[in-house]
Amino acid sequence: MSALFAVIFMAVFVAAFGTFLVWGTAKLGPKRVPNEVRDMPYESGLPGQDMKTTNISVKFYLTAILFILFDIEIIFMYPWAVTYLDAVRAGAGGYLLAVMGIFVLLFVIGLIWEIKSKALEWD
Amino acid sequence: MGVDAFEITVNVAKLILIFLMMVQAVPILVWLERRGSAFIQNRLGPNRVGPLGLMQLLADAVKFLFKEEFLPKKAVAFLYLAAPVVALIPGALALASLPLGSPIEVAPFAMLGREWGPYIFKVQGYDIGVGIVFVLGVSSLGAYSLLMAGYGSSNKYSMLGALRASAQMISYELALSLSLVGILIVYGTFNFYEIIAEQQGPLEFGMFGREFRFSFLPDWGIFYNPIGALLFGVSAFAESNRLPFDLPEAEGELVAGFHTEYGGFKMLMFYIGEYGHMIVASALLAIFYFGGYGLPIPSWSTEAVNGFFAAKGFGSTSASLMTALVSHVSILVKIGIFLWIFIWVRWTLPRFRYDQLMDLGWKTMLPWALANAVVTAVWIYVINIK
């Protein structure tokens, strides 16, 4: 519980520090003069486009979904990994290895299917 | 955070000091990066301001403070201004949960007319029992600040850089967390202190009923799981968006990637976040594979160093303090070596193409990390068969 307070304190302190810097440098610097050309998004001298007209590849969305699937599977391996050594020494290693074998097999099938279905090809 | 005023004060001071340590490391690292790149590319680098050019970054900081405030016209103001602040948080939170020295045991003492103590102060911001899970969780929050910067700037280059950055970070997050499974099997704990305690003393292990002992080598994790160490190191490069994985910036294609529209101190805050990630990654490498705050000489374990100072006539509190100092310097040197490797690689290797980067992450690193975990598990099972 006390570690949680420390984490929250740290996050709030860092956020306050950063906010103070952003605010303070805005106060310290010279005042802004509005200028049509300077305020455009920097795009190498071309007239700036609005973000709303830029198309984003749906591939990024697919990558994010695949990440969530695999990341959850990996996090499930963590508690198994820390208990494994004790279990092996206590003689229950074979059972744990077999159970995790099935889980890893599902993981591998998922990965192979994902590569076969060209979900990870970028063109 | 503590039972009485003294303990709470020290713990709060520790948190602030660790954060300031991270911020302070940035000018030194930027100087090292400039001088190092100049050295690698046969140039001179900044060498005019102060001895060895060390004052250059102070001059730069003052310059950054007095830059004009700039907000692109089409920007989403809140996201644009909040992104650099959010960039600071993951690195600081992760760094504060890492042990940077052996615990300091303070014997009871009298001050201001009352008895205080005994206390045990750990050289870390807060001790979370599940250590590594917290670090992995917090440091992956770094993707948010990049996305906020990219979306908030309303610039197509920023947006592309931010999307690449988040896709890259989550892809390598998989290899990063999976590469640690092997070493976690070997140690059987999440707790950093137990992991470091396991790595003290000379390299010795039992196999098929026989004992092996190498008295000249320290008992470090890299000898048990070298492939895991390599995979972790490479994914750490990708996680902190450093060359050869700095596709989010890719100045040849995207101007400056997600921080195209940023300038002055706001850009420097992104740098602080990036260097914070590098420091955390280096510290994790040191803790998991290179003995953490332990000294590299097998017979000089933390207890032995403490005994050495006690025999020299230090009191128990000051002997513990000196031991913490020695171990702190030890882990700082290890972190420094890894940070130099980060810089060295950056100025040596070319950048990946984007599809090659994703292929490396998903089709090479992920299967290798999985194979590393499976082989470690099977091997541990086989050598322990009675």
Would you write up a description of this structure?
The complex is a heterodimer of chains A (123) and B (386). By secondary structure, chain A is mainly alpha-helical. Helices cover 67% and strands 0% of the residues of chain A. Chain A contains three helices and no strands. In chain A, helix 2 (59-90) packs antiparallel against helix 3. The longest helix of chain A is centred in the middle third of the chain and has 32 residues, at 59-90. Chain B has 386 residues and is mainly alpha-helical. Chain B has helices spanning 5-40, 56-65, 77-96, 131-139, 142-153, 156-187, 192-198, 226-239, 251-254, 264-289, 302-311, 316-346, 354-383; strands spanning 104-106, 109-111, 114-116, 119-121, 202-207, 210-218. In chain B, helix 3 (77-96) packs antiparallel against helix 4. The longest helix of chain B is centred in the first third of the chain and has 36 residues, at 5-40. The model of chain B has no long low-confidence stretch (mean pLDDT 84). The chains are: A mainly alpha (123), B mainly alpha (386). At the A-B interface, helix 1, helix 2 and helix 3 of A face helix 1, helix 3, helix 6, helix 10 and helix 13 of B.
List strands and helices in order, with pairings.
The complex is a heterodimer of chains A (123) and B (386).
Chain A: H1 2-28, H2 59-90, H3 93-116
Chain B: H1 5-40, H2 56-65, H3 77-96, E1 104-106, E2 109-111, E3 114-116, E4 119-121, H4 131-139, H5 142-153, H6 156-187, H7 192-198, E5 202-207, E6 210-218, H8 226-239, H9 251-254, H10 264-289, H11 302-311, H12 316-346, H13 354-383
Antiparallel strand pairs in B: 1-4, 2-3, 5-6
Helix pairs in contact in B: 1-3, 1-10, 1-12, 3-4, 3-5, 3-10, 5-6, 6-8, 6-13, 8-10, 8-13, 10-12, 11-12
First-last Cα distance of chain A:
49 Å
What is the molecular shape of chain A?
flat
The overall average pLDDT of chain A, rounded, is 82
Amount of helix of chain B: 55-70%
Distance between the termini of chain B: 47 Å
SS field, number of helical segments of chain B: 13
Strand line-up of the largest beta sheet of chain B: 1-4
Portion in beta strands of chain B: 5-15%
Count the E strands of chain A.
0
The helix/strand series of chain B, from N terminus to C terminus, equals HHHEEEEHHHHEEHHHHHH
Strand content of chain A: under 5%
Subunit organisation of the chains: heterodimer
SS class of chain B: mainly alpha
Dominant shape of chain B: globular
Q: In percent, how helical is the residue content of chain A?
A: 55-70%
Mean pLDDT of chain B: 84
Largest interface: A-B, 68 and 81 residues
What is the N-to-C order of secondary-structure elements of chain A (H for helix, E for strand)? HHH
Secondary-structure content class of chain A = mainly alpha
